[in-house]
Amino acid sequence: MTEQYQTPIAEMRNCYIGVDVGGTFTDVVLFERDSGKSWSWKVPSTPGDFSAGVSNAVAAILRESRRHGESVVRFGHGTTVATNAVLERRGPRVGLITTEGFRDVLEIGRQDRDDVFDLAYRRPAPLVPRRLRIGVRERVLADGTEATPLDEAAVREALSTLIERGAEVVAVTLLHSYANDSHERAIAAIAKDAFPDLPVVLSSEVRPEYREYERTSTTVTNAFVMPIMRRYLDQTRSRLQSLGLQVAPSVMQSNGGVLSIEAAGRLAAATLLSGPAAGVVGAVAVAGASGYRDLITFDMGGTSCDVALVVGGRPTEIVGGKVGDFPVHLPMLDIHTVGAGGGSIASVERGSLRVGPESAGADPGPVCYGKGGTRPTVTDAHRVLGTFVDAPFLEGNRSLDVAGATAALERDVAQPAGLSLAQAAHGVIAVANDHMRHAIRAVSVQRGYDARKFAMVAYGGAGPLHAAQVARLLGIKTVVIPQSAGTLCARGLLHADVRRDDVRTILTPVDDLDPKVAEMQFRELEARSADALRAQGVQPEDVRTIRSVDMRYQGQAFELEVDVPKDTVVAIPVDEGGLLESQSLLERFHRAHEAVYGHSRPGAPVEVVNLRLKAVGVMPKPDLAANPEQSPSVQAPESATRPLLVPDGSSITMTIYRRDSLPTGLRVAGPCVIEQPDATVFIPEGDTASVDQVGNLVIDVAS
Amino acid sequence: MLDVITQEIINNSLNAASAEMGRVLQRAAYSTIIREERDFSCSIFTRSGRLVSQAAHIPIQMGSMDMALKSALNTFEGRLTAGDAVLVNDPYSGAQHTPDILLFSPVVVADEVVAYVGSVAHHIDVGGRVAGSVAGDNRNIYQEGLRIPPVLAYRNGVMDETFASVLAANIRLPEVTFGDLQAQLSANMLGVSRVQGIVKEHGTAPVLTAMERSIEATEREFRRRIAELPDARGTAVDFVEDDGLGNGPLAVKVAAEIIGDELVVDFTGSAPQTEGPINSVLSATVASVLYVVRAVFGPDLPSNDGLKNAVRVIAPSGSIVNPVSPTACGGRMQTCYRIVDALLRACASFTPDRYTAGSCGNMTMSLHFNSKGGHAPIFFEVMPGALGARPEDDGIDGTDVHISNCLNAPIEALEAEFPIEFTCFEFRPDSCGAGQFQGGLGLRRGFRLHDVGGELMIRGDQVTNGPRGAGGGGDGQPCHFVLNPGTPQERVLPSKTLVSLQPGDEFVRETAGGGGIGDAGERNSELVARDLAEERITNHFIGTHYSHTA
């Protein structure tokens, strides 16, 4: 995994570090700007206190690279700390203050059930129990006017009651606070006065957007993870300081941008899908260096497979997703997950060979890991076929148990299905690949994109094993396997820009939109974002903002985002008027509607729902194309052979290459396996592969 | 030969295709009722009209699409070619009520029909006496809008001109309805192309075989699960309180009997069909029965025709569960909910671990504002109640139950759209039926009119008797619909009515809590203490039902 360099310890501040904290491993990548060299490392995660794993990883990579902590100018990290807290429901006791009469909105939700046929279905318990939800007398209307003043005495009483009942942090969501936040702010002021140490989270700060249930859920989730995140970030910062790092760490968000540690502490819910987002950013960066900008990212691990679509170098985004059981309404990369991974269990049920969604996970894991697993998995099928035989990450147990995998596959698949062992193993892989084909179709073909025109970037422990076969099923012709397929998330952290999203709900018919007011509101959002980015160390000249407007036909409950190019908006100073031109907005909306939904209704009334602003602080990042990874110049790569079991039950000889011995440009033909330190690549018969100028392995998939 | 691997890949591909049909329909639809409340379903059928794959949408729609397809094939089998689509909404030709329009298309490969795809969606209006076509006091099907037996509505993907002009002349919002029909057609065309792709990939014969085998495997499994139980018979009766025209209560009487590997569901003894619109046509009754059978015996099994073959339904002609034309039937849901409650209870005599006590079905309201300026003209919404207790668990508070699964609209959106201000949306403490396992809490949802009055229509039930408890458990509190509560103008409304509202009036709906299961004296005192602390029940409720814990 590590290259040995005899260079002296560098004193220059030119190193970037990315750390990805996963549930099992913490990955780290160090990139030196001037030399273009990089190092990567993996240490076990430390779930009791994740910051220890971060510190171990950083210490290890500094040691390996022989660089000083002081030389680090940029430190980005992705973390599952917040996600784990939500999934395990281990967090502080949260209190909630709402408008009187509406304290149950959080629990009622949208009143539907996730499983309509399950008589034993249980609604997931909300993060705030009913006794910790209190309504106070006040009312603001949809247009922001105050109908009932805030009952301040009731607020004081509610706060005392919540604290008495054990609340450690308080969330506040009042109706229509996106239109007028004064009551929420008044509650925060009262709390600060009466209980100075009590953290208070306002919905108008977390996400000032209409829809009371989603806003409440987002605010409450943020309140739940905020104290945990703050504690973790404080510990991380002090540990890093003691390693000599003077740079302020930043944290990856679900939207693919990073946030400063202070901002991440406040907007902790924005980091919930930090890891998968970092992977997509890494995939965009490494594939981009090879010239691929339209991508399908394919991250297959032990229990699940994450796929995302990237168009022109930009990952597709959505606002709102679920984390665990709860909606979190913040912008995030549109990552589609299916429960198919190396640990997915195979069985024969009612005449079909089923794979997943049940998974052996990491513990006990596949049978061949020898850790107590008894049911055959996708990984066991690979072991039987010979495509995957060693697991360098399993301590002291590198060689996988073929006898166990064979016995389990015979017993649970081959015999009940009347198949040979070889057919059963190939069948398990075929069904798993079919699941992944449908997942990729869901983000591509089903959204109107022709998958055949995209390149696939495969990573994660199992992605490179399946990539070529899945690509063929979809008519994809090119698969890119990054050099560090197992640490791509950490690498992505070196390539992320600072990002801040803001929104303002205005809910008004487009004909009534006052362009002056809208322009003022956009400028407020821009000023707020510029301040926030400056506070995170971004220079004003590096800030880019993108304005957009959410619109819908009157009566629709879901809106469409329409980009507003600057030139149609800020051509003239505000005081001269007529800036946000409603006719051009309308045309854009109808066009967007046609593109997404297949029809538009030019005569129907249209509403403007939200003004949105994305602010990006452009950060320096590794130039992969200018600094190609070193590739050996030897002509003959190191290779070995082993048997590959084919469907008729016979074996053929397959070549095994070491990835780091493959010279640039040498074309190898399948069937063969290319072993990387953290992943195994399978090239099926008919396909060929070669390492390109920037160090990516590119597979040409035969049709 | 068809192996288990190809079988699974074909099953998955068919399921992906029906799910994708649903997404296309939802995305392309014009009306909020399809797009946001998700009142639609999509399916794939074998060439003999048997259901083979279905996306999980709305159980009441899912259960009997094949009955409408069957009546379509009675007329058109052998005459359909690529690009054709048969449309039907006639409840007496396999549909359920007039607003639900079904559309079926043949999948043609090499000039041969290999399968059918179909979609059903709730349309905003199909004509008739009132906007939305379903009024609580309709007296016959002619008042419920345009009634369409199976017609060849599309040829080569284009709507028949004569049909289009007749339809357009009979409905209130033709632009929306035609848009929604186009969305259904798009979903069908997508389904056709996906099934053609599957046939192209695997070959016609393997796909046809895989479809049949998938159905047979499901049927075998259902029969196996039924046969595991000894032959037994259970009976139950429940009541629809009234039909909106003063007739009632109306009995839904059901006997469920296991005979070998078959389940027989017999409604003999149920009330005769009634004048008001709450009658449940056979297809709606069958769909309600299949929901229960699936929930009891195989929530984990695929949704296909295999289930249907293992169940025999006896529904006397001319009864409330199988009315004859031209009986009104637009408000079938109130009866369907009672079918579900009664049948779950009847089955509980042999599957005592899998049922729920009585639940509160949803209620529908629409408010037609008097002035049309500056806001949308009609506020329509469906409000749910609660799930009854389960044999080892409490019910669910404030949820849509069983055969429906609709979403609510955000209050912040509604207040921006209509001249109203909500006064509450919360659980109703003490509304649950007491018991060892307690029913769910009903909901309270109120709003006040600003400066505009309007005509309010409501359609509910269970205002006299709450959902019934079981095994000694108490009943839930009944629904309560009231104008201007706590004022001199307070006025309690019947379950199905039309009333004028003045500016400033407040209307509050309280839906029923679920029934309990088991003796209240057996309730765990820790749960009683928890619910008291959670303010779900009061000391008064504890004094009445759970004095053993005091």
Give structural notes.
The complex is a heterodimer of chains A (703) and B (550). In chain A, strands 13, 14, 15, 18, 21, 22, 29, 32 and 33 form a 9-stranded mixed beta sheet that branches. Residues 1-10 and 569-578 of chain A have low confidence and may be disordered. In chain A, helix 2 crosses helix 7, helix 4 crosses helix 5 and helix 12 (421-443) crosses helix 13 (463-474). By secondary structure, chain A is of the alpha+beta class. Chain A is 31% helix and 27% strand. In chain B, the strands form 4 sheets. A 7-stranded antiparallel beta sheet of chain B has the order 2-1-5-4-3-6-7, sandwiched between helices. In chain B, strands 14-15-20-17-18 form a 5-stranded antiparallel beta sheet, with helices on one face. In chain B, helix 1 crosses helix 7 (204-227) and helix 8 (282-297) packs parallel to helix 10 (333-347). The mean pLDDT of chain B is 94. At the A-B interface, helix 3, helix 7, strand 20 and helix 12 of A face helix 1, helix 6, helix 7, helix 8 and helix 11 of B.
Largest interface: A-B, 65 and 74 residues
Oligomer: heterodimer
Number of helices of chain B: 13
Percent of residues in helices of chain B: 25-40%
Shape of chain B: globular
> End-to-end span of chain B in angstroms?
69 Å
Number of helices of chain A: 17
N→C terminal distance of chain A: 34 Å
* Beta-strand percentage range of chain B: 15-25%
Strand-residue fraction of chain A? 25-35%
The main sheet of chain A comes to: 9 strands, mixed
- The count of strands of chain A amounts to 33
